[in-house]
Design goal:
mainly alpha; 131 residues
């Protein structure tokens, strides 16, 4: 069965996760230039502001996605925690896409359903989500 297409909220989440990672990378390069090579602080000046704004946007979009896409509280927590380490929003986005969590809940496959807290991992196939 083909993977379900991401919903509109899922697509917005993907774009914001990508932009958040890009601004993180820019900020890291800026910090290298400022503190290691001591050549310029313009990267920190620019990407610090951009990343701050996109970080807040990512948190808002992640919360909206968690509600609209009916993520479990564990998945929502991991999505929010992914905004802290550099580039982890991309890792979370890829994981969420592979587990069909960016699709509308009614379009998800049975194998992508989140396991309940009381079930064992043997109750699920290899595509199930384990968080």
């Amino acid at each position: 069965m083909p993977s379900p297409r991401p919903s509109t909220v899922g697509r917005v989440f993907s774009v914001v996760a990508l932009v958040e990672a890009f601004t993180w990378a820019g900020l890291l390069v800026g910090m290298f230039l400022k503190y290691v090579t001591e050549t310029t602080d313009q990267g920190v000046w620019l990407f610090g502001r951009l990343h701050g704004g996109v970080f807040v946007l990512y948190v808002v979009v992640a919360l909206v996605a968690a509600v609209r896409l009916r993520w479990s509280w564990k998945v929502a927590f991991v999505a929010l925690a992914a905004s802290v380490p550099p580039l982890m929003t991309l890792v979370f986005e890829v994981w969420a896409r592979r587990h069909h969590l960016l699709a509308a809940p009614e379009h998800r496959t049975a194998g992508a359903a989140l396991p309940s807290s009381g079930s064992s991992s043997a109750d699920h196939d290899d595509d199930s989500v384990r968080v």
